[in-house]
């Protein structure tokens, strides 16, 4: 892998150029633009914007969805101990009989099948009450380090060079975030109601594409976070109810975001009964053999809150994060290759359209 070498002055000048080129207040359009304006002002210069009234009068909550599709509709839900799926975190590994070996790993969420009614119950349940002694002994409340213990407080491993299990978690986080065209496949009963347009003509014409490659449904609350990443799609994200918080960075910020290459793993709960387990379970991380992925380790929101030391991720100071709140009835255009971190301020339903450009 080639390495780019640049001195402080060069990096500072480059950061200034990036800011001048891409970082400006996010335009808010009161109605969908025509394709020429969208192409000229946003698609070609690759800058985001908010579009209102793209799907007029659509206000769709999780309860509304259940009324449309029925309580027994099956979902595949992402589940994590702390709400951070698809994120780089520190894990403690066992290798050749030794414990205490730590390494950074890109960890994907556990996928759990359940009914949409079960999902609603888990999404809205109150945090499990625990004594201070239980919290200190059993629960890791920080995002990052994941040490695993069983009921006897022993480190857990599934085998040679395996990743150890996380501490006991009594309040794991559920998030419906399939990213696989789920609205037109797994949730086709909802898509067939006609509530959602199959495409947006102004976007197809500006992107010079056909219909969207994927239409995804997202349902989560303030506990769930999608870590900073980029997509190779042109992205139109519409909020049906609630509010999304996006932190955006332009593509050229890749030099400042501390992107690295990490081995992959997947969260795995250790339980017998599905519903009982998701209220009080032990977690482990299972490595994916011979799998590595490029991802961004630091969390820009934690950086902005001053949670990292000054020297921990020094290049972040040259990045250009833009915070955007997208509320019910608004659509955010995220150009391809723009980095984005996504969370919710409350229970939120959203739908996004991915176009291959």
Structure characteristics:
357 residues, alpha+beta, nine-stranded mixed β-sheet, 9 helices, six-stranded mixed β-sheet, 20 strands
Tally of helical segments: 9
Low-confidence stretches: 129-166
Through-space gap between termini: 27 Å
Overall strand count: 20
Q: How much strand?
A: 35-45%
Query: Average pLDDT value?
Result: 86
- Report the sheet with the most strands, covering strand number, pairing sense and barrel closure: 9 strands, mixed
Rg, alpha carbons = 21 Å
Helix percent band: 10-25%
Shape: globular
Strand order of the largest sheet: 1-2-18-13-20-11-10-3-7
Q: What is the succession of H and E elements?
A: HEHEHEEEEEHHEEEHHEEEEEHEHEEEE
**Structural category:** alpha+beta
Descriptive report:
The chain is of the alpha+beta class. About 20% of the residues lie in helices and about 40% in strands. It is built from 9 helices and 20 strands. It has a 9-stranded mixed β-sheet, covered by helices on one side. A 6-stranded mixed β-sheet has the order 8-5-6-15-16-9, with no helix packed on it. Strands 4-12-19-14-17 form a 5-stranded mixed β-sheet, with no helix packed on it. Strand 1, helix 2 and strand 2 form a beta-alpha-beta unit. Helix 2 packs across helix 7. The protein is globular and about 60 Å long. It starts with 7 loop residues before the first helix and ends with a strand. About 10% of the residues have low confidence.
């Amino acid at each position: 892998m080639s390495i780019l070498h640049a001195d402080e002055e060069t990096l500072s000048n480059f950061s200034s150029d990036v800011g001048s080129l891409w970082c400006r207040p996010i335009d808010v359009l009161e109605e969908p633009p025509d394709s020429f304006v969208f192409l000229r002002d946003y698609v070609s210069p690759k800058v985001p914007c908010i579009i209102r009234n793209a799907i007029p009068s659509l206000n769709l909550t999780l309860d509304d969805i259940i009324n449309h599709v029925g309580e027994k509709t099956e979902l595949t839900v992402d589940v994590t101990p702390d709400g951070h799926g698809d994120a780089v975190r520190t894990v403690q590994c066992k290798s050749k009989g030794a414990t205490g070996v730590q390494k950074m790993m890109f960890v994907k969420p556990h996928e759990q099948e359940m009914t949409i009614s079960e999902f609603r119950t888990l999404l809205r349940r109150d945090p499990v009450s625990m004594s201070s002694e239980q919290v200190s002994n059993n629960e890791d409340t920080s995002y990052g380090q994941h040490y695993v213990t069983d009921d006897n407080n022993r480190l857990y491993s599934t085998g040679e060079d395996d990743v150890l299990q996380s501490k006991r978690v009594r309040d794991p986080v559920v998030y419906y975030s399939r990213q696989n065209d789920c609205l037109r496949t797994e949730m086709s009963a909802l898509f067939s109601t006609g509530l959602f347009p199959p495409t947006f003509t102004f976007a197809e014409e500006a992107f010079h594409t056909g219909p969207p490659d994927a239409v995804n449904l997202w349902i989560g609350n303030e506990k769930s976070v999608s870590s900073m990443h980029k997509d190779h799609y042109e992205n139109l994200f519409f909020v049906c109810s609630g509010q999304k918080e996006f932190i955006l960075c332009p593509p050229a910020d890749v030099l400042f975001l501390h992107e690295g290459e990490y081995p992959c793993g997947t969260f795995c709960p250790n339980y017998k009964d599905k519903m009982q387990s998701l209220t009080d379970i032990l977690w482990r991380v299972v490595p994916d053999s011979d799998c590595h992925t490029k991802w961004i380790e630091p969390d820009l929101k934690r950086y902005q809150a001053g949670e990292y030391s000054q020297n921990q991720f020094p290049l972040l100071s040259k990045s250009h994060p833009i915070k955007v709140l997208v509320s019910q009835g608004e659509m955010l255009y995220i150009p391809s290759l723009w980095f984005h971190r996504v969370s919710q301020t409350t229970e939120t339903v959203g739908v996004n359209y991915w176009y291959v450009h």
